[in-house]
Amino acid sequence: MDRRSLMKGLGLGAAAGVLQILGRSDEAIAEQYSRATKGLPALKITNVRAILTAPRGIRLCVVKVQTSEPGLYGLGCATYNQRPLPVAVAVDKYLDPFAKGRDVDNIEDLWQNAYTSSYWRNGPVLNNALSGLDQALWDIKGKRANMPVYQLLGGKCRFAVDCYTHCSGRDFAQLERSVRRAMEKGFRHIRIQLGGYGSPHLSREPHFKEAGFGLPSDSHMDARAYLQATPKMFKHIRDTCGEKIELLHDIHERVPPIEAINMIKELEQYHPFFIEDPFPPEQNGYFKLLRQQTSVPIAMGELFNNPHEWVDLISQRLIDFIRVHISQVGGLSVARKIATLCEWFDVRSAWHGPGDVSPVGHAANAHLDLAIPNFGIQESVDFRQNTRDVFPGSPTLKNGYMYINEAPGFGVDIDEKLAAKFPLPDHPGYWEPVRRSDGTAVRP
Ligand code: MG
């Protein structure tokens, strides 16, 4: 093909002019033509498979998507620690036959059709399975483009991901020591909790245990003891550790909604960075009342699975931080849309990022964090060595920031042979009951 007919065929007269000015050869233009018309070779999905592993005793589920290009695969997080086996079945028995033979490039099309392939949707099991497929396809796209995924999302808005860490103690002194250690590590944002959620050690032996109601392993939540101790905890940490650190706290939905509102009002004087999960998702209607009573920043959403749960809270400016667990909402494709919705209402991100997210999922959190303008803060974990060995390339923490590597895709791999040496624990993983003193179930 000569230069003139090539330009005609391309329909890129202006671009050709530029190329001529730059002195590009016919061969260079021909190569550009070839790329423009052919693009990357079409690849098909050949296999979608769940991999279960528990290097730290937490039931991680990662989905591996293989392609028709030998050696090219992607990984996505589908971790649902409390129900890992149904997720694996949803992946292996339903998503694999659904996705096989389809084009790896069309992530959105695949997501939309896989989402409705079960007809009933928006539940945690199927959303996690979908996330595994979705994130793996983003990983593959990054590898195909030879770019980290954050580049595909628009590039960096910041050099690293600012994180918060967890500090807790059975009493104020133990908590204070934990906070000081975190500050020494460079964290500027610290979540403070007195004991476990609901501070069970603060109260006396519950009546249900004396009465033999439930099982001895069932735990106790005394709302009054928790509500009284938490403002004192904030006062102690502010008095001893100063005003420079940002303090966060997770109510974990365990107290009556109106009592949560009263406590948050009391916490105003300590300027929390945010208060998390004041109400269970079933009580979203309380957020309007909360907003009328206090301007303390509110984070919400780790239990959300369904768009009906987050759209109104965001668009009515009833929360300040969206905290969805990215695999629980269906993957990166959904989370980036949530981030964009939030941007218009100045709601910031605080993706759920505890130990029950795989390193692949933490990397997905971080790639999105790097690329969105309305990033708020990231919950983080420092992976132990055996987790890093199973997942080479896992994100790292330094001076309170999370760093990803710059490898194409999410930059995290899996050593399947090593992963198999960490089978799921014997306990199936469900949450044990939490009860009030009379035995009444408490909803976390
Ligand atoms: Mg929470």
List keywords for this structure.
444 residues, alpha/beta, TIM Barrel, ten-stranded mixed beta sheet, three-stranded antiparallel beta sheet, 41% helix, globular, disordered N terminus, binds magnesium ion
Task: Explain what the structure shows.
This protein is α/β, with parallel strands linked by helices and 444 residues long. Among the domains are: 1-40, no CATH class; 152-419, TIM Barrel (Alpha-Beta Barrel). The chain has helices spanning 3-10, 13-21, 26-38, 84-99, 107-116, 124-145, 149-152, 172-184, 207-210, 223-241, 257-267, 286-293, 307-315, 332-343, 359-371, 385-390, 416-419, and strands at 45-53, 60-67, 73-77, 161-169, 189-194, 219-220, 246-250, 274-276, 298-300, 321-322, 348-349, 378-379, 396-398, 401-403, 434-435. Helix 11 (257-267) packs parallel to helix 12 (286-293). The longest helix is centred in the first third of the chain and has 22 residues, at 124-145. The model is unreliable at 1-23 (pLDDT under 50). The structure holds magnesium ion (MG). Residues 250, 252, 276-277, 302 line the site of magnesium ion (MG).
